[in-house]
Amino acid sequence: MEGRKRIVGWGVLALWVIVMALAAPFAGKLGDVQKDRAVDYLPASADSTQVAKITEQMPGGDSTDLVLVYHRDGGLTAADRATAAREVAEVAAGHRLSSVPQPVPSQDGTTLLYPVSSTEPGTDEVARDAFVHDVREKVSGEVGGPGALATDASEVYGSLDGPLLYTTVAVVAVLLIVIYRSPFLWLVPLVVAGVADFLSMAVTYALHQGFDISVSGQSTGVMTILVFGAGTDYALLLVSRYREELRRVPRPYDAMVAALRGCGPAVLASSGTVALGMLCLLAADMNSSRGMGPTAAVGVLCALVAMLTLLPALLVVLGRRVFWPLIPAYGSEPKAARRSLFAAMGSSAGRRPLPVLLAGAAALAALSLGVLNLPGNLKQEDSFSSTPESVTAMKTLAAAYPQLGTQPITVIATDAAAGGVLERARDTEGVARVERGRSGGGWSEISVVAAHAPQSAGETATIRELRAVLGDGVYVGGPSAEQLDMADTSADDRRIVVPLVLVVVLIVLVVLLRSLVAPLILVAAVVAVWGAALGIGGLVFEGLFGFEGTDTGLALLSFVFLVALGVDYGIFLMHRMREECLNGLEPGPAALSALRTTGGVIASAGLVLAATFAVLVNMPMVQLAELGFVIAVGVLLDTFLVRTYLVTSASVLLGRKVWWPGPLAKKPSSAARSEAERLPVGV
C-alpha cells in the first residue's frame, strides 16, 4: 500500500515534467510580446491613445522624435556650431527624416537644439532603439526627446528580468533557511516557486495570444514577485501543517493528505480572493492597469496549483528526511516552546481590548496623514532612479529654453478640418508655433509647440485649452498629453475599481465566514493599512529616496494588492477563529487561540511577502520602487499590527456579535457542534 502511494507522488512529478515540457515553447516567447511603448500603458479611450494609434497608420508609420542638444556653459563657439551642423547633416544623410533639422539657438547662446523626426523605425521597438543608438554614435551632443526616453525606458525594463528574478530568489532562499533551519527543506518550495513562475509565463503568453491582454515589463515583474511571495506563503502554511501531521501519522503520504485537508480550504479561499481582487483591474481604463489584472491573477493561481500538487508530491517522495536535522518523528512531541511573541501580544489585546483598538486605529490614522505630503505626479523624465542621457538632455533644455516647449504636442484632425484646426491652434493661448505635418488615411498631423516647458502647469493648461477649442473629432496627444491622460484616467479608475474590489472581497468573505460583521472588520482593517502605508510613502519618497513625483497609478495598484493580500492573511486567522468558536470557545478566547496557533506561520509568510515586494525598491524604475515600498510596508503593518492587535481586540470587544447574523452569533448549539465536527482543521 505504501509503495502504491509513493507511485502516486512519482506520477504527479511525471505529470509536472510533461506540463513543463509543453509550457517551455510558450514561456520563452513571453519576452517577444512584452511591450513598453507609451500606447501600451495609455488609457484605452484617451485622446493621446487615439493619436498614437492614428500616427502608426500614417505613411511611414509612427514617428520617432528626438532632440539633439549641443551645450557649452560659457557659450557655444563657432567651432561648436560647425561641428553640430556637420553631425546633424551626417544623421540626415544616414536616415530617412521627416524634414531637414533646423537649429534653434537659446537666447543666452549656450545651447543649440535640433528637432529630429523619422518614420524609419515605425512601430518596431528594436528598429527604434537601433535608430536612437546610431544617432547617439554620430553626434557629440546629448540626444533627448520622446524617442530617446522610450529607448532608455525599454532598456531599463529589458534589464529587469534577470536581476529581479535573482534577487527575489536570493531573498526568499535566505528567509526560508532561517525559518526552516534545515539545509535541504528550503530548496523544495523555492524550486516549486521557480516552476510556478515558468508556468505563469507560458499561461500569460497564451492569454496574450488568445485575448490580446497587454503585457509590459511592469506587469511581468510584479507577476514574478507574486509567484514567489504568495507561493512561498502557501508553502509555509502547508509545510507547517505537514510537520504537525508527521508527528501523529506514521506514513508521509497520509500525513500530507491530512495536511491538505486541514489547510487546503483556507489556502484555496485566500488565493481565490486574491485572484478575484486582481481581476477587478479589468474594469480599469488604463491599459497598464488592465493588463496587470489577469497577469497578476495568473501568477497567484499558478503558484497555488504548484504548491498544492507539485510541492506535496516532492515532500512525500523525499519523506521525513527532508526536515533534517529537525526530523518530526512519529509519536514525538514538539519541544516545549517558550511563550510565543504572538501569545504575549494577543494577551495584551485580550486584557485591554478597547485601549489597544483605539491606539492602533489612531496610529494608522496618523500615518495616513502622510498622504498629504506625497510629491506631485511623476514626470516622464523623473521615472528613472538613475539619470540616462535622455533625461540629462531634457534638463539642459529646460534650463536653456525656459519659455519654450521643447516637446511637440501632436494634434490629429481629418483632412477636411485640418485647415480650420491649424488656424484655431495658432490663436490658442499658450501656443508658440504650429506646423502641418503628414497626411494619410483621411487624417492630418499638426505639430504644436507650447510656450512653456514640457509637463509644466502652463503646458498642461495649453493642452486642455487646445482640446476645448479644437472640439470633437480632433485629438490632442504627444508625450505631455499622455502623462496628463494617465493622471486623469487613474483618478477615474480609482472611482470605479476601488468600490468594485471592496464589494467583491466583501462578498467572498461573507460567503466564507458566514457573517457580515467579521468581513466588515477585515475590509476596514486592510483599507486602513493601505492608507497608512501610502502615508508612510508620502513621508519618505522625496526626503529619503529622492523621488521627484508619485506614479499616477500607485494609489490604485497598491490598494488592489494590499486589500487582496491583506484579506488573504485575514482569512487564515478568521478561518481558524471560526473553527475554535464552532468547537465551543467564546470569540475572545477563540481569537487568542487562533493567534497563538497561526501567528508564527502568518508572520513568516508576511515577512517573506514583504521582502519579495521590497526587492522592487532597488529596481531602476521609480514606479516599481514606489509600488514595492508601499506594498511591503503595508504587508508588515497588516501582519504585526492589524492581525495581531486590531482584529484580535475588535473580536474580544464584540464577542459573538462578530459572527452576526450567522448562527455563531448565538450560543453554541448541537448544530454548531455538528458543523464543527465536519469542518476541516484550519491553518
Written description of the protein model:
With 683 residues, the protein is α+β, with helices and mostly antiparallel strands. Helix content is 65%, strand content 7%. The chain has 22 helices and eight strands. The strands form two sheets. A four-stranded antiparallel beta sheet has the order 2-3-1-4, with helices on both faces. Strand 6 and strand 7 (443-450) form a beta hairpin. It is elongated, with a radius of gyration of 29 Å. Residues 669-683 have low confidence and may be disordered.
Low-confidence stretches: 669-683
Encode the helix/strand succession as letters.
Answer: HHHEHEEHEHHHHHHHHHEHEEHEHHHHHH
Helix content: 55-70%
Overall radius of gyration: 29 Å
Helical segment count: 22
**N-C termini distance:** 28 Å
Task: Write down the overall mean pLDDT.
Answer: 86
Roughly what fraction of the amino acids lie in strands?
A: 5-15%
The total beta strand count reads 8
Name the structural class: alpha+beta
Shape: elongated
The largest sheet is: 4 strands, antiparallel
Task: Output the strand order for the largest sheet.
Answer: 2-3-1-4
Tags for this model:
alpha+beta, 7% strand, 683 residues, four-stranded antiparallel beta sheet, disordered C terminus, 22 helices
In short:
This protein has 683 residues and is α+β, with helices and mostly antiparallel strands. It has 22 helices and eight strands.
Task: Summarize the SSE layout with pairings.
Elements lengths: L1 H26 L2 H4 L13 H11 L6 E8 L6 H17 L9 E2 L5 E8 L6 H14 L3 E3 L1 H13 L2 H20 L6 H25 L5 H32 L3 H28 L7 H32 L22 H11 L1 H16 L20 H12 L8 E6 L3 H9 L4 E10 L2 E8 L6 H14 L4 E3 L1 H35 L3 H24 L13 H29 L4 H28 L7 H33 L15 H9 L5
Antiparallel strand pairs: 1-3, 1-4, 2-3, 5-7, 5-8, 6-7
